[in-house]
Every structure is written in C-alpha cells, then in structure tokens.
Amino acid sequence: MQASVKKNDQVEIAIEDIGSEGEGIGRYNGYTLFVKDTVMGDKALVQVMKTGKTYGYARLIKLIKPSTFRVEPRCQIAARCGGCQLQHVEYQKQLEYKENKVRNCLTRIGGFTDVVMEPISGMDEPYYYRNKSQFPVGRNKDGSIAIGFYAGRTHAIIDTEHCYIGAEVNTEILHYIRSFIEKYKIEPYSEEIHKGLLRHILTRVGYSTGEIMVCLVINGTEFPHKEELIKGLINIQGMKSICLNVNKEKTNIILGEKIIPLWGEPYITDQIGTVSYRISPLSFYQVNPIQTKKLYDIALDYADLHGDEVVWDLYCGIGTISLFLAQKAKKVYGVEIIPQAIEDARMNAQINGIDNAEFFVGAAEEILPRAYKEEKIYADVIVVDPPRKGCEQSLLDTILAMAPKRVVYVSCDPATLARDLKYLCEKDYELVKVQAVDQFSHSVHVETVIALHRKDI
Ligand code: SAH
Known about the structure:
The protein is α/β, with parallel strands linked by helices. It has helices at 91-108, 170-183, 226-233, 289-303, 320-326, 339-351, 364-375, 393-402, 414-425, and strands at residues 10-18, 24-28, 31-35, 43-51, 55-65, 118-121, 132-139, 145-150, 157-159, 198-205, 212-218, 239-246, 258-264, 268-272, 275-279, 310-314, 331-336, 357-361, 381-384, 406-411, 429-437, 447-454.
C-alpha cells in the first residue's frame, strides 16, 4: 500500500493497539504507524519519522486526548527502562492485549478459525513477582558506580536500586554491593574497552522458601576481599548461596559457563505446589512463581493423566513440569539440552522421592527422533515447552510419527506456537484448549498453554 504520509508530516491519529515492543499502533488513511509512548485509546498528534511500504514510524508530538487505559506507573523509571513496556497501561487492559495477541497469532499465523480460549490467568497483585533479576554494573557519566537496568534497546545503565517487579530484598543486596565496590574500588566492567571486573549481579529468591542466591558475574576468576563481601551478604536474612560466575567473553550474553561457589550451597531450593526444586545459577526456572503454579496446573489438567500414561516432557529444564506430571503418570521422560539442568532434575526427583521420572541430556530434536528410530519409544502424552524459537520440524515430525493421544504445548512466543500448531493440525491433531497465563506482568510477553488431541480418537 502506498504510504498516505511522508517523512516529517504531522498528523492526528487514534491509537488502536499495542505492538510487540509496547509501542502504540494507529492508522492514518489506512496506513499503519507505530508510535512509541502512546497507548491504545489515545488520540495523538504525531510526526512521521520513517515510512516503509506497508507501515511507518512516528513520534508523539502531543497527546490530544489521553487514553482512559493510561495509569501512572509505580516505578519512576518505567518509561525509560527496558524491563517493563506496559506499566503505564491499566493491568486489565494489559491482560486483554495479551489474550488478543495469542488469539491473533493463532488466527493469522496458525490459520485457526473461531478459536475458543479460556480467559487469561492474571495476577491479583502484579508487582514484586520476579524470582530472578540480573543487574548490569557500570559507571554513570559523572564516573560514579551505576547498578540497575539497561534502558530500552540500549546498554545505557539506568542507576536504580529498586525494581517494582523484582524481589523486594534486591534493594538491600544492591545497596550493600554498591557500598562494597565503592569502598574497595572494584572496577565495574566496561563493554567498550572490555576491561573491569564486575559485569552483572544476579539474584534468585525462592518464593516459598525465602532462600536467596547472589551470583556476581565477573570478567576474571577472583573477587578481591571476598571474605569481607561474604560477611556482609550473609547478614541479609535468607542468604543461602553466594557464588561467582566467570564471563571473560566480549558478549551480550550475561552468564558464562563456570560457577565458583564462595559460600553456602551452590543452589537454592524453592517449592511449587508440593514439589521442591533445587535451582542452580545457570538453570532455567520460570521467573514468576505465583503464575508458574497456575501454568503447571493447567499443563497437568490438559495432559489429563490417570496414572497409567507414559509421558515425554521435552525442554524440561530442571524437571519442573516433569515432576509435576510424574505425580499422576506411570512414567515421565524428560529431555533438556543443558547438562547441569539435568543434574538438577535428577536431584529434584530424588529429593521428592519421585522414582518414575528419567532424564536425558541433549537436543529434543535429536534425542526424540533417535530414540524413536532405534528403540521405538512410545508416548501417551508429549509435553513441549521450547524457548522462543519453538520446535524444530524434525521434532514435530517425530511427534506425528509417535502419535501420542495428547500434546500439551507450553509456549513463551505465540507466533512460533501458532506456526508449530499449524503444522501439527494440518496433519493428525486438533486444537482443543487454549489458555494464556500472565507470567510477565508489565512486559509485552505472554505464556500460553494449549492442548491438542489426536483427531482419530
Ligand atoms: N519446562 C521447563 C523449562 C522451559 S524453558 C520449565 O518450565 O521450567 C526451555 C528449556 O529448553 C530451557 O531449559 C532450555 O535450556 C531448553 N532447551 C533449549 N533448546 C533445547 C533443545 N533444542 N532441546 C532440549 N532443550 C532445549
């Protein structure tokens, strides 16, 4: 479509939707414009910055009529911070947006019509929910220590000690570490010159146990005055694990592979429902414990287990879903690519006295096809919970060949979810249940659980 505007034009538009980065979306004579700092329901005067074939970008000049969905964010840095994109949008509207996002993906990418969804599962109190936080360390323009969050789309650090979606105890931890590195003149890492020691501070907090882990990510293998550091940190109630993570690479990836335990156990323990989980610094663990319980309950419900089923849980992490399922299945097999996570999964089975779960290290798209070819493995139910890029086609083909009665797909990206479902449902499965869960309140992200049933039963 020909753009109905050109660069620098100022036009008045109504914002109708939110884009994937939290920006407002409106139309001018049918031409789509993405406008940062606007919210659905706004009437705004905007200036066109860039036009493309099918859509363009504009910036907000003036709010003519603010949306009734706007709210004052609790956090003062919410507009700049890359962490929350939607804090200025009423929570109910955030939920509606996320549910629509899932529905739209299923319709547009998946080709499903008349998708019936359970209402999205939201939080009662969508603050202080994250059990894991990662704070970059650097310097402010005036040379003072900066600890906080990256500003949206940049690596400029917004210096702050309080995050409204992280664990409240983080403020105390950051405050102490800041004074420590000031006192001992420990140099923060600089990305530009690839020098300096302290890169990130990672914290994990067990929601139901209150156990705390602090892990300092360093460009080196030694931390000066570590005895002193430990002495201070263990005064914080709940401290269970203090460690270093070595990351000497020139990379955006936060964590390196090597962990050096400094004090306590190299893990913390948390509980979801009646199952206890050991969590190491490198292991994946869902970040929102309150919603995770709901997510796993839905997955368990969709798996519809009666005690005699064989279940494969692919992308199992530290065995969280596997052990949830094992309580109701005959046997659960978990597959996960990170060896340390599988060590945790095996330990988790043991500490919970669960003996009907077995775990394998490797890529799901390699382990499953090979095991099916060589050993003709069988499944009544297959659960997948892949990272954002979704499942490889070779894995989907193996699922089709194994023909489990039910497939439960837990997804953090509705677009790849819809793509994979389309593939499975063009063949032998039908989409039976869909529910979105708000795991990431105030961000644009959404988690979804779906149930597929084999068409012929
Ligand atoms: N089900 C788990 C983890 C889900 S996150 C939970 O709810 O906690 C996705 C997991 O997939 C991560 O642990 C990641 O390490 C793992 N992973 C990524 N690519 C993989 C692959 N190709 N094969 C198997 N696991 C993979």
